[in-house]
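Quick one: co-fold with S-adenosylmethionine.
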Amino acid sequence: MAGRSVSHPLFARFFTRCAPAAERLGGSAHREELIEGLEGRVIEVGAGSGLNFAHYPSTVTEVVAVEPEPYLRARATDAARQAPVPLRVVEGTAESLPVEADAFDAAVASLVLCSVANQATALAELSRVLRPGGELRFYEHILAEEPSLARLQRRVDLFWPYFGASCHTSRDTLRAIEQAGFSVSSCRRFTFRPCLLFAPVSPHMIGRATRP
Ligand SMILES: C[S@@+](CC[C@H](N)C(=O)[O-])C[C@H]1O[C@@H](n2cnc3c(N)ncnc32)[C@H](O)[C@@H]1O
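Sure, here it is.
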């Protein structure tokens, strides 16, 4: 396997069980917005159980979905069989993508840059595998603009990653994307809180950025 191993058996089962409710409450619409209009070859990093797969339009010719966690990768492999476009699930991490450079028209990162071990390395990898002018589509929960919630997120991050499979609530992911050299063409911020427990991860963004 490329990169370090990622195994979160309890989180993986919790996520798979709880995700359908979050999808009904708005997650599915967010994924539609994330993926709308994509074309050509696409790489998706940290694909989880494959919740984005059903949303790929027929203009996408192939998706390579990278997922390091074994239980989630098995769920994603099941979901790939029902996908509307050719889709291959492979083992790997965002920090060390098992694919060649300049090979993809677009990359998709949803609810994953909060969890990767090294955001800068993961974003550098995404830049490496996209062709020049290729597009990064992102859907992430992020650091709050509101100072009191941002303070709460920083406190919560003292323990949240231990229960949430390395998920951090207070990452400034938009800034990280810009610092990685991407040019952000759109970014919509919004609040999404499918249940009270998720208050620290309620600030979200969906956007598009281009590799120069
Ligand atoms: C909250 S889940 C989101 C899954 C999926 N992207 C979605 O939108 O439903 C976080 C995902 O990030 C994956 N992940 C964690 N560390 C990773 C890494 N270093 N590289 C790639 N994926 C990683 C986890 O295995 C998990 O599938």
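If it helps, The chain has one domain: 9-210.
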